[in-house]
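Quick one, probably user error.
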């Protein structure tokens, strides 16, 4: 651990390391002369987990200042456990068996800033996050006019070429020139289905070439067609149910025409139960015929937070309310998939985030140690429930605190 101290007169620096439960695991102090000085402590430990470092100049009564969303007085770090003596390394028959993904980039290497380098390493491999989003949205690839996207392995971002991070291919959104509104949209189908199908066929060709070159151990390419089309979301579907199903039909047929290993997935509504509602409502229109799997966002409550854990509603005396608890919601979703989709359909949870408590705000003393502990506990429980109740893969959201709100 490296400390930089700048006392105006000689002082004493006291330091502590506390664990997840706020127990002091190490502490000490040393004299600091006046002026700027760097002091490095070399530490070894048999403990693993989350730790908090605090440091104080005793006479000046100066502590670590808040930085970004980090409160006053602390810096944090993690130590991964070495379990190799008791747990053999995991072996995957195919790359698709990885269970965790994430959203968010973190430029941690010296000299890197957004978005000049690799925003996924070293954090994602260190945390065991393998799946990430790879954008092939039409409005991203052809924002001005048709037929500018040329498929090929050169379209793959350099940070994906190592093959250790897997792609969830994003397809949502229509460019302005192809939109009935004249602006890029997620709310309406394109004015030309032929142009849309042409683009999707090229995306399928692109993905097939990339998989063969960079992901030979991956059995399929996975495509997410829409993103939170809920009518009250930020990207709402405003057209008819029939045209929503027609969009999926066009996507499914075009992608499968050029990618023999395609898995087309949706609808990716914001809450687990809303996905069930959409599957049921759209089933008479043949929606499930154009799905190889289901993608959902795993939100389960009004404000997923430490105060709203995933089992919060499970014991509610009203069965309709209790059905909103995450375990019950996931069982309902799996039942709907068994009813409507072909056997073996995959279930990907492509976003679930836990906020801090409703009504709170970042500040010099927030979040507290207890809130951080509860936040971590609810994140872990939520994703274990999602996976344990039948998801094939689950995305942690977000990989770092966002500065706008807790």
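Nope, works fine. Designed sequence:
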């Amino acid at each position: 651990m490296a400390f930089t101290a700048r006392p105006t007169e000689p002082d004493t620096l006291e330091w502590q390391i506390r664990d997840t439960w706020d127990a002091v695991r190490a502490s000490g102090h040393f004299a600091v002369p006046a002026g700027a000085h760097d002091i490095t402590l070399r530490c070894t430990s048999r403990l693993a987990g989350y730790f908090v470092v605090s440091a104080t100049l005793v006479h000046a009564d100066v502590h670590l200042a808040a930085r970004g969303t980090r409160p006053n007085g602390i810096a944090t770090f993690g130590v991964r456990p070495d379990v190799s003596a008791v747990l053999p390394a995991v072996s995957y028959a195919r790359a698709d068996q990885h269970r965790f993904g994430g959203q968010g980039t973190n430029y941690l290497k010296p000299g890197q800033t957004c978005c000049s380098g690799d925003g996924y390493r070293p954090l994602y491999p260190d945390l065991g996050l393998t799946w990430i989003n790879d954008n092939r949205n039409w409005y991203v690839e052809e924002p001005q006019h048709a037929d500018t996207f040329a498929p090929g392995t050169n379209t793959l971002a350099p940070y994906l070429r190592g093959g250790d991070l897997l792609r969830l291919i994003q397809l949502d959104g229509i460019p302005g020139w192809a939109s009935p509104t004249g602006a890029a949209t997620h709310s309406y189908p394109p004015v030309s289905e032929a142009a849309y199908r042409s683009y999707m066929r090229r995306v399928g060709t692109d993905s097939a070439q990339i998989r063969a070159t960079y992901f030979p151990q991956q059995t399929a390419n996975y495509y997410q067609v829409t993103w939170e089309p809920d009518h009250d979301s930020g990207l709402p579907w405003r057209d008819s149910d029939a045209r929503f199903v027609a969009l999926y039909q066009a996507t499914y047929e075009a992608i499968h025409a050029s990618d023999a290993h395609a898995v087309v997935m949706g609808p990716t509504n914001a809450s687990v139960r809303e996905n069930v509602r959409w599957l049921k409502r759209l089933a008479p229109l043949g929606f499930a015929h154009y799905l190889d799997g289901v993608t959902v966002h795993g939100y389960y409550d009004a404000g997923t937070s430490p105060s709203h854990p995933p089992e919060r509603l499970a014991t509610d005396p009203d069965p309709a309310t209790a059905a909103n608890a995450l375990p019950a919601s996931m069982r309902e979703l799996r039942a709907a998939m068994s009813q409507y989709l072909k056997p073996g359909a995959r279930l990907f949870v492509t976003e679930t985030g836990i906020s801090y408590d409703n009504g709170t705000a970042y500040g010099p003393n927030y979040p507290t140690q207890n809130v951080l502990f509860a936040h971590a506990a609810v994140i872990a429980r939520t994703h274990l429930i999602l996976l344990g109740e039948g998801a094939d893969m689950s995305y942690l959201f977000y990989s770092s605190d966002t500065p706008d709100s807790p």
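The chain has a mean pLDDT of 95.
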